[in-house]
Amino acid sequence: MMKRSRGGWPRSLDGKNKPRSNLFSRPVLIGVALAILFMLASSLSVQDEIAEGTHYTEMVCQGHWPDYKEISPDCSQ
Q: What's 19's DSSP letter?
């Protein structure tokens, strides 16, 4: 059974400190979660840019939109 010592760290009943693993501490887990969310958001942003470019090319090539970005898409495909 564990009890709290004066410093707030858990101690066993025999008075010896038990080692704590910091590998999965809260700040590390929060950092990993934020990194994963950032990578996911970046990936979705790139995919959106690619889809937007494809849509723009299709609309210009079909004559629905003028080439207002002046990129002269290749409509021979």
A: P
Sign (positive or negative) of CA dihedral 38, 39, 40, 46: positive
Q: Which helix (H) or strand (E) element contains residue 26?
A: helix 26-61
The owner of tokens 């700040």 is 27
DSSP 33: H
What is the tens place of the pLDDT at every residue in 2-44? 555 555 555 555 556 655 666 668 888 999 999 999 999 888 8
Pairing state between β 10-12 and 2-4: antiparallel
Are residues 8 and 20 in contact, defined by beta-carbon separation less than 8 angstroms?
A: no
**pTM, two decimal places:** 0.53
